[in-house]
Structure formats: structure tokens, C-alpha cells
Amino acid sequence: MFGIVDYLSDDEKKKFSSSNTVYHYCSCDAFIKIISNREIWLTHSSFMNDYKELKYFDELVIATGLNKGRKKNLIKEYEKRIKSADLNSYIFCTSYGRDVLNNWVKYGDNGKGFAIGFNKESFNFTGDDKIPSIFDNPSLALSPVKYIDKNEQIFVENIINMFDKSIKAEKDSFHRNYTVMPGLVDELLLLRNFVKNKYFEDEQECRLLLHKDSAKGGYPTYKSVTGKLSYRARSDCIVPYYPIKLDSECFVKEIVIGPKNCSRVEDVRNFVSKYFSGNEIKVNHSDISYI
């Protein structure tokens, strides 16, 4: 099996593995709720800020794979599965960028919010040389996002070629052994959650993905994943999400106060320590001079 990390450059791998902390940018209100409830929400993939979320990868796959011998069958199967796959993915967005202006503007209430630094080890991942594949645990996993240009067809071609080689290694083909194809399509459908347009590259995003285990017919129980679909209000609609309880005292490592946030360090530290007291949490103001 392959994972998104198989397609990261050495520099991208280094960035992701160099820190044990990933940061979630949010408003003051969201910050209070996450900390006091000790809970994060994984939102349905259809409600991300990029209106072409997931579809971007779909277009690349379809454009690259059509009319290329037996790979054509893979693309047909992929197209057929796309709609059901949309129902299976719930995402919590973080960044390995600690103090990124664009993230403050887009996700941190224009600099008036917070960035919560989460301990990667609490998600069962470490910042050492071994970067986990999303396929180490297809149901719930944290992986970096791969940013590619729409003309960077070689990325998708390499994926399809790797899949093709795996079939040749088994001395079989899509035509002779149709059961191989759904498994390869499953891997593509997982990878699509971790590919975005290069225009978003400065976000330095890592995603926690909750993916439905279709073989078991439902979502898994992972620590404190409730398994119960919930809804929150947005200005124009209601948004489905799955909550996860932060059951470790060491989940939160650092709080960065936004560049336009007037909160005092001591107030933030006292508030957070009421709910996460297992380690000493760093609290600092942003270094960005943004007004």
C-alpha cells in the first residue's frame, strides 16, 4: 500500500517530521469551546474553504488516466466511486506552520484568534524520521497535504504507474482479476483527501482524517470518537461533523495568541491549565506585526 508521504519531496518530509507539534488556527469562540470541552470536531469534507476540495484531485486522476490501456478500467471504477466516497471523509485541519500570516487571516479570525499547538504523539504519531502513512490506520490518521500544480501531471501518473506495477508483480491484470481494482481505487480515494492546489501551499497543512471503514459498515471507535454524527450551524447551512474527545492531559503543548488578539498571556495560561494540566503549556504572542 502507498501513502501520501511516498510522494512528498525530501524538503516536505523534513518539514513535517521536524516538529512534534501541529497548530489549529481558530477564533476566540472556537478556542474556548475546544479547550473547555476538550474536544475537536472533524468536519465533512464537502464543507472545506476550497470549493474544489477533493474535486481537484479527481480532475487530475481522470485527465491523466483516460484511454491508457487497462488503466482506463481503473479510471472508470474511480469515477463510479467518487460520489459515495464524498460521504466517508471527515477532516480536522492543522498546520505545521506555527505563526503563519495567511492562516491567521483565513482561519484565525483575521488575527484576533488563537493557534492551538497539539502534540502529534497524542494522535499516536511522533515527529521522528518515520512519517506515518494514512494507510497505517485508514480509519483515522494524520498526514501532511501534498500541494501540486494543475499541470503537474507527473504526480498522478506516478501514482497510477505504482499501482500498475503492483498488479504486474502479482502477474495479473484488471481484466483477469477484477477484485484487485477496488482495493487500488480505495487507495486513490484516500489520497484525494490529502491533495490540494499549489495556491494553498503557504498553509503548510496537515489533516486528521476520519474515513469510513466500508467493510465494517460504519465509523470505528477510536479512543473517544463518539461514532455519532452531529451538526453545527453556519451562516448559510448546517454542517455535519464527528467530535473527538481530547482524553490525554498532554494533548495541548502550546498556545499562540493572534497578532490582533488582546488577551494577556497569564489569562490564557490560567484558562488552559484548568483543562490540560498534564504538562507545562507554552503561551506566547504571535511575532507578526499585523494590524
Provide a descriptive summary of the structure in words.
- The protein is of the alpha+beta class and 291 residues long.
- The chain has one domain.
- 31% of the residues lie in helices and 23% in strands.
- The protein has 8 helices and 12 strands.
- The chain has helices spanning 10-17, 28-37, 55-65, 71-86, 101-107, 153-169, 180-191, 265-273; strands at residues 21-26, 39-44, 89-95, 114-119, 140-144, 146-148, 195-197, 205-211, 230-234, 237-245, 252-257, 282-285.
- The strands form 3 sheets. A 6-stranded antiparallel sheet has the order 5-8-3-2-10-9, with helices on one face.
- Helix 3 (55-65) packs antiparallel against helix 4, helix 3 packs across helix 6 (153-169) and helix 4 (71-86) packs across helix 7 (180-191).
- The longest helix is centred in the middle third of the chain and has 17 residues, at 153-169.
- The radius of gyration is 20 Å and the shape is elongated.
- The termini are far apart.
Low-confidence stretches: 125-138, 173-179, 213-224
The helix content, as a percent range, equals 25-40%
Number of domains: 1
Discrete helix count: 8
Could you write a compact summary of the structure shown?
With 291 residues, this protein is an alpha+beta fold. The protein has eight helices and twelve strands. It has one domain.
